[in-house]
């Protein structure tokens, strides 16, 4: 069983930056593909970014390319989402997602979810 705990959300002005963290507990973190999704009020949960379990290749939603960077620290069982040049449309609850040996979380969501962390970007 994998437990995910997000942190780092908050209120920031447009153009600002935040770093989200997701700490995982459970076996074999190095075989977990990790990702971030977000959900704005009244909207469906959408894919933001993911990093593969092997090789560390990353994929991003078009809306965040060039502004967000996902990274992982296997020694700390943690994945990060560095968010720069934030826009009001980035506002939402950000959820950490994980799945063992998945190739691409953008296509197949993992089985494990965190509780979410709120990000609010003011204009």
Structure description:
The protein has strands at residues 3-7, 10-13, 18-25, 32-39, 46-51, 58-60, 68-73, 78-83, 92-100, 112-113, 117-122. With 123 residues, it is mostly beta strands. Strands 2, 4, 5, 6, 9, 10 and 11 form a 7-stranded mixed sheet that branches. It has a 4-stranded antiparallel sheet with strand order 1-3-8-7, with no helix packed on it. It is globular. The relative contact order is 0.32. The mean pLDDT is 96.
Query: Termini separation (Å)?
Result: 40 Å
Largest sheet: 7 strands, mixed
Tell me the structural class. mainly beta
Shape: globular
Mean pLDDT: 96
Number of strands: 11
What is the alpha-carbon Rg in Å? 13 Å
Helix proportion: under 10%
Would you list the SSEs in sequence order as H and E? EEEEEEEEEEE
Q: Can you tell me the residue ranges where pLDDT is under 50 for at least 5 consecutive residues?
A: none
Number of helices: 0
Report the β-strand fraction as a percent range. over 45%
């Amino acid at each position: 069983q994998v437990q995910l705990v997000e942190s780092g959300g908050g209120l920031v002005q447009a153009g600002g930056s935040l770093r989200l963290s997701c700490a995982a507990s459970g076996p074999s973190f190095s075989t977990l593909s990790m990702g971030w999704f977000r959900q704005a009020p009244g909207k469906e949960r959408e894919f933001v970014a993911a990093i593969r379990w092997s090789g560390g290749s990353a994929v991003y939603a078009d809306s965040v390319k060039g502004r967000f960077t996902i990274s992982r620290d296997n020694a700390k069982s943690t994945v990060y989402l560095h968010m720069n040049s934030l826009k009001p449309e980035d506002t939402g609850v950000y959820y950490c997602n994980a799945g063992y040996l998945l190739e691409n979380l953008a296509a197949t969501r993992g089985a494990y979810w965190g509780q979410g962390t709120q990000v609010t970007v003011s204009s």
